[in-house]
Automatic annotation (TrEMBL):
Protein name, per record: Adenine phosphoribosyltransferase
Assembly with partners or alone: Homodimer.
Record function comment: Catalyzes a salvage reaction resulting in the formation of AMP, that is energically less costly than de novo synthesis.
A Pfam family that the UniProt record links to this protein: Pribosyltran
Family assignment from sequence similarity: Belongs to the purine/pyrimidine phosphoribosyltransferase family.
Xref: NCBIfam families: apt (TIGR01090), PRK02304.1-3 (NF002634), PRK02304.1-5 (NF002636)
HAMAP family named among the record's database cross-references: Aden_phosphoribosyltr
EC code(s) of this entry: 2.4.2.7
Locations listed in the record: Cytoplasm
């Protein structure tokens, strides 16, 4: 299946000069959605036990939950500031087009749990790095960071000291 055909470019979004990779056509196609979830689960080494999958707001939630189900793991949402109802840890991070803050519940990960971090796109690496730091703060062991796509020309993987995997590279 050629899933690149289901990812459209949106120029000048969210600001001039950015070409946004829109996955909503992929998500709207049930066959492609299942295919990508399977591909993402297969990126994880067979000997890597994963206790929890983190999905990064918001698009990381969709496939993160599907990956967790395939791995028999729990799912942990990492959200933007002020969206989680219980006590949180937070981390600010830079985006290719600004800054933001992510939060995780303080009790979301137990020390020593093995964590897979999932998001839709690895761009500059700021978001994934912030999530890695939150996981480390809670004592989790990061198994891998995986993505639907990597924008390799932005060198985001250089910010991450963990195994990185993606279904697509641009």
């Amino acid at each position: 299946m050629n899933i690149k055909e289901l990812i459209r470019d949106i120029p000048d979004f969210p600001k001039p000069g950015i070409i946004f990779k829109d996955i909503t056509p992929l998500l709207a196609n049930s066959e492609a959605l299942v295919y990508v979830a399977d591909q993402l689960a297969e990126l994880i080494p067979t000997n890597a036990k994963v206790d929890k999958v983190i999905g990064i707001e918001a698009r990381g939630f969709i496939l993160g939950g599907m990956i967790a189900q395939r791995l028999g793991a729990g799912f942990v949402p990492v959200r933007k500031k002020g969206k989680l109802p219980s006590d949180t840890y937070s981390k600010s991070y830079g985006l290719e087009y600004g800054e933001d803050v992510l939060e995780i519940h303080q009790d979301a990960i137990k020390k020593g749990e093995r964590i897979l971090i999932h998001d839709d796109v690895l761009a500059t690496g700021g978001t994934a790095k912030a999530v890695c730091e939150l996981v480390e703060q809670l004592g989790g062991e990061i198994v891998q960071c995986n993505f639907i796509m990597e924008l390799s020309f932005l060198n985001g993987k250089d910010k991450l000291d963990y195994p990185i995997a993606s279904v697509l590279q641009y």
